[in-house]
Write a structure and sequence with these properties.
By secondary structure, the protein is an alpha+beta fold. The chain is built from 42 helices and 34 strands. Residues 814-1017 form the Cation-transporting P-type ATPase C-terminal domain.
């Protein structure tokens, strides 16, 4: 009755059941089939077709006739219109101020008369061209920003094979027409068309490459058994096939449970679409700077205009109050143009572009220019394991065979193998001494099993100059081992690298002929090959490899040299004990047992169609030996991790691999100490999910390893790190990594990764190497330091221009600089040295310092004072140069300062200006003097910017040859506008005499002395106080060396070195070596604190 009163609509039923399908899909098959039948019951127009698979019967609805089912392909992203993107480019406050200044200047230019008519239009046109160029670049970047989402289309399968009522056999249809409930068949080489629950496997094994989702390169073996855990991660859903993954081997039938945006790859698309791209720290600081600058500009411009209200009616304006108001309004506009560093965006872009070129030479390809600088304040690197920290080349590093059997047990020959790549180069060591493998009978047979029980091979890539795998990684590791062993002492001299790739394996395979393979199956956990000898007289053999516990259980004998010894329970336990030691110790090796069947059944008597009998054929085995392999760490990673620790950067491994392997690799590369307790520092995805949100947040603060994670975990970890104000670099290569790559401040994709990962990232590693990230971070720090220097240079220059215009307006002096001259200086003359400052050499200790606080102001209080001091002198010197010409130049009018201040009252009838031609106040000489002083003084100021605090005596100009070249070029351009027609007319300047140039240099050179004095104060009076950023331990801490030595350790006597231990102010760590170093060398507090590990919060 309830159903009659509240009928369930087909559309609502579909939505409910689609949710349930994903929940039940990987669990009980019976429950899942019930769910499918319930779904079909409510389908409005079910067109059933019978498809049998084993003992289960399924009904599939036809996609074309079902109503209410939306498209099952990933929907296209709705991007912003071109107009919306253009408008966005003008939302920046600095840009709007410039745009307003250009518009006002254009209107004022329409009313100019005489010679100024042409030059008046230069200023607004130049400003508009700059704004248009910035808008074009911004729109282009925006157009490419969402490519990552559309790149997911690459992984959408185009076709699928389904069973439908209108065909008796399987039919191929477009993947977009497949719907939940369809019966789908997949085979080797197919791209899975939807998320599918496997119901029947039609081959001995089903292997799937799902690296685009999980990031793990090893293919996964699938089965049909239920996965009862409702919280199983994708890696553990062994009975599910995921849309977009590839079938590596086998054939299977299954039922569709999700399509389109409901698939796992669709969920990733939604995560990416919902991730907002945040501004980089530099962009945020520049925005804040723009807001501050706009307020100051507005205030000063209004002040200048208001202060001169009394001069609006001066005779020079013809007695017109309106003309006077417009005149001073033009001065206010010129002041705005002078205050805005128009060249700053171009210089920053150029500096970042140069940085990208340097990074590209180090195999780091930067896709987003602002990210170059962001790398410099990276405080956490979240790195994938496979291929980044490791070589992604499985390598056998240990093996053993039996030596002899005694009453007390069995002794083993244990060997270690050098070499961590697929290159067939390395030594076999026994007790750290090289051995000839051919001298050990057990090793000859072990090499034979490794070579024959193998479908992989090595290939030498001549273009890349490296050896690559052809086939499975595990089997390729065995192939490489055989080449290193060279058990038959094959002469390898004279072979090319292509021939060397398989020389030793070829010798073995010439002795035996492989008849057929019994593929790996999940129940017996092994695979085998049936081989017959090439030369008659020998019996056929089966070679077996597989999981040690399974293979050893089926072994009846143990190979000792050339003999067979009966396998006893004690021997089995001893062998398994050694294997467990390898599998759970420091290395956490993946172990494979190798065995032979010396008397297998005749191949005619074997039923190869029935895989359930394979285990019977593999009984009565003889154990040969065991190999232990791993994906080894890259050689250079250990040093890079150590460098990160010294630089205050925390390295976190995030991997889809199991926890034991992940922790073992962490220990090997230095993320964890060899004996360090990892409790609370290493988590699986499941363990992390079991924590409460607040505990999760605290766990992320301490953890350095996350294993068995899914895409959602990565994004959550990035979110927690960002809540601590950490700047996070996240690596990834698969589609599953894309949301986290996009969310992190620095997304780093692997060169061998998917197009989706690359499109979502800011940087691509062409060599997939973790060490390249560290090199990029170092480059980013150097770029930021250089950027601070040229920003300091440009801002102090602009402050000088503002002071110049402000002084002339306040004192009532004639214009010293006009807008077109200011534009020329800001864009061209200043721009060249500013760009060259990007080539300043990096500090030698750049990676010995902690990451900078992303919240620290771009301009600190002391820096602001220095800007004002230098800028004040620049402005004063510029006004002084123009004033000197009026008062003291031999060919000038030599008027009094009073007359100069009241020049607007100059008329023929005014007795104050008797004998003075009033047109002299419109001469080009004073503006030329002012412009020349401004350019020259800023060239000297560029030399000051070589270092923030180092004297020019310690860091001479020739350390940056590019800067010297830029200064020479800038001065040449200045001479060009002074002496080459018609440029003097455009810029309203005139050639200067030699005596006038001497005055220009006299006024300009003291700026060096002034900045040297300010640097001296910085070095000797301000560096003793250290502000060090420790983001999630203790926030901002101010410590001086005196605090550490005297206040916290009264027994330390600076006169004799303080031999007693000194506790660190933060953690109490003993700092005895540090204090001895401080007392003996008088280092600063900044250098002292590098000795204390608590200042490495990671």
């Amino acid at each position: 009755m309830a159903n009659e009163s509240t009928p369930v609509s087909p559309q609502r039923a579909e939505r409910l059941i689609l949710i349930e399908l994903n929940s039940f899909a990987s669990r009980s098959l019976v429950e899942f089939i019930k769910c499918i039948n319930f779904f079909l019951f409510f389908s409005p127009t079910p067109i059933p077709t019978l498809c049998t698979s084993g003992s289960a019967t399924f009904y599939s609805p036809c996609a074309r006739t079902r109503r209410g089912v939306t498209s099952t392909e990933l929907p296209a992203e709705e991007g912003k219109s071109l107009w919306e993107l253009v408008v966005e480019q003008f939302e920046d406050l600095l840009v709007r101020i410039l745009l307003l200044a250009a518009c006002v200047s254009f209107v004022l230019a329409l009313f100019e008369e005489g010679e100024e008519t042409t030059t008046a239009f230069v200023e607004p046109i130049v400003i508009l061209l700059i704004l248009i160029a910035n808008a074009v670049i911004g729109v282009w970047q925006e157009r490419n920003a969402e490519n990552a989402i559309e790149a997911l289309k690459e992984y959408e399968p185009e076709m699928g094979k389904v069973y439908r009522m209108n065909r008796k056999a399987v039919q191929r249809i477009k993947a977009r027409d497949i719907v939940p409930g369809d019966i789908v068949e997949v085979a080797v080489g197919d791209k899975v068309p939807a998320d599918i629950r496997v119901t029947s496997i039609k081959s001995t094994t089903l292997r799937v490459d799902q690296s685009i989702l999980t990031g793990e390169s090893v293919s996964v073996i699938k089965h049909t058994d239920p996965v009862p855990d409702p919280r199983a991660v994708n890696q553990d859903k062994k009975n599910m096939l995921f849309s977009g993954t590839n079938i590596a081997a086998g054939r299977a039938i299954g039922v569709v449970v999700a399509t389109g945006i409901n698939t796992e790859i669709g969920k990733i698309r939604n995560q990416m679409a919902s991730t907002e791209q945040e501004k980089t720290p530099l962009q945020q600081k520049l925005d804040e700077f723009g807001q501050q600058l706009s307020k100051v500009i507005s205030l000063v411009c209004v002040a200048v205009w208001v202060i001169n209200i009394g001069h609006f009616g001066d005779p020079v304006h013809g007695g017109s109050w309106v003309r006077g108001a417009i005149y001073y309004f033009k001065i206010a506009v010129a002041l705005a143009v002078a205050a805005i560093p128009e060249g700053l965006p171009a210089v920053i872009t150029t500096c970042l572009a140069l940085g990208t070129r340097r990074m590209a030479k180090k195999n780091a390809i930067v896709r987003s220019l602002p990210s170059v600088e962001t790398l410099g304040c990276t405080s956490v690197i979240c790195s994938d394991k496979t291929g980044t920290l490791t070589t992604n080349q499985m390598s056998v590093c240990r093996m053993f065979v039996a030596d002899k059997v005694e009453e007390s047990g069995c002794t083993l020959h244990e060997f270690s193998i050098t070499g961590s790549t697929y290159a067939p180069e390395g030594q076999i060591l026994k007790g750290n001494k090289p051995v000839q493998c051919g001298d050990f009978d057990g090793l000859v047979e072990l090499a034979t099993v490794c070579s024959m029980c193998n479908d992989s091979s090595l290939d030498y890539n001549e273009a890349k100059g490296v050896y690559e795998k052809v086939g499975e990684a595990t089997e390729t590791a065995l192939t490489t081992l055989v080449e290193k062993m060279n058990v038959f002492k094959t002469d390898l001299s004279g072979l090319t690298k292509v021939e060397r790739a398989g020389a030793c394996n070829l010798v073995i395979r010439q002795l035996m002929k492989k008849e057929f393979t019994l593929e790996f199956s999940r129940d017996r956990k092994s695979m085998s090959v049936y081989c017959t000898p090439v030369k008659p007289g020998s019996r056929s053999k089966m070679f077996v490899k597989g999981a040690p516990e399974s293979v050893i259980e089926r072994c009846q004998h143990l190979r000792v040299g050339m003999e067979k010894i009966a396998m006893t329970p004690a021997l089995r336990e001893q062998l398994m004990c050694k294997i467990r030691e390898w599998g759970t110790g420091k290395d956490t090796l993946r172990c494979l047992a190798l065995a032979t069947h010396d008397a297998p059944p005749r191949k005619e008597d074997m039923d190869l169609e029935n895989c359930t009998k394979f285990v019977e054929y593999e009984r009565g085995l003889t154990f040969v030996g065991c190999v232990g392999m791993l994906d080894p760490p890259r050689k250079e990673v250990i040093g890079s991790v150590k460098l990160c620790n010294e630089a205050g950067i925390r390295v976190i491994m995030i991997t889809g691999d199991n926890k034991g392997t992940a922790v073992a690799i962490c220990r090997r590369i230095g993320i964890f100490g060899e004996e360090e307790d990892v409790t609370g520092k290493a988590y699986t995805g499941r363990e992390f999910d079991d924590l409460q949100p607040e505990v999760q947040r605290d766990a992320v603060k301490r953890a350095r390893c996350f294993a068995r994670v899914e895409p959602a975990h990565k994004s959550k970890i990035v979110g927690y790190l960002q809540s601590f104000d950490e700047i996070t670099a996240m690596t990834g290569d698969g589609v599953n990594d894309a949301p986290a790559l996009k969310k992190a401040e620095i997304g780093i994709a692997m060169g061998s990764g998917t197009a989706v990962a690359k499109s979502a990232s800011e940087m691509v590693l062409s060599d997939d190497n973790f060490s390249t990230i560290v090199a990029a971070v170092e480059e980013g720090r150097a770029i930021y330091n250089n950027m601070k220097q040229f920003i300091r240079y440009l801002i102090s220059s602009n402050v000088g221009e503002v002071v110049c215009i402000f002084l002339t307006a306040i004192l009532g002096l004639p214009e010293a600089l006009i807008p077109v001259q200011l534009l020329w200086v800001n864009l061209v003359t200043d721009g060249l040295p500013a760009t060259a400052l990007g080539f300043n050499p990096p500090d030698l200790d750049i990676m010995d310092k902690p990451p900078r606080n992303p919240k620290e102001p771009l301009i600190s209080g002391w820096l602001f004072f220095r800007y004002l001091s230098i800028g004040g002198y620049v402005g004063l010197g510029t006004v002084s140069a123009a004033t000197w010409w009026y008062l003291f130049d031999e060919e000038g009018p030599q008027v009094s300062f009073y007359q100069l201040r009241h020049f607007m009252q100059c008329t023929e009838d005014n007795p104050v200006f008797k004998g003075i031609d009033c047109e002299v106040f419109e001469s080009r000489y004073p503006t030329t003097m002012a412009l020349s002083v401004l350019v020259t003084i800023e060239m000297f100021n560029a030399l000051n910017s070589l270092s923030e605090n180092q004297s020019l005596l310690r860091m001479p100009p020739w350390v940056n040859i590019w800067l010297l070249g830029a200064i020479i070029l800038s001065m040449s351009l200045h001479f060009l506008i002074l002496y080459v027609e018609p440029l003097p007319l455009i810029f309203q300047v005139t050639p200067l005499r030699w005596s006038q140039w001497i005055v220009v240099f006299k006024i300009s050179i003291p700026v060096i002395l002034l900045d040297e004095a300010l640097k001296y104060i910085s070095r000797n009076h301000l560096e003793g106080q250290l502000t060090h950023w420790v983001p999630h331990h203790i926030g901002l801490v101010s410590i001086t060396s005196t605090d550490l030595i005297v206040r916290h350790h009264p027994h330390s006597d600076p006169t004799w070195g303080g031999l007693e231990p000194l506790p660190c102010q933060i953690c109490g760590t003993s700092l005895t070596p540090s204090i001895n170093h401080v007392v003996s060398t008088n280092v600063t507090a900044k250098e002292l604190l590098t000795f204390c590990s608590c200042f490495n919060p990671r």
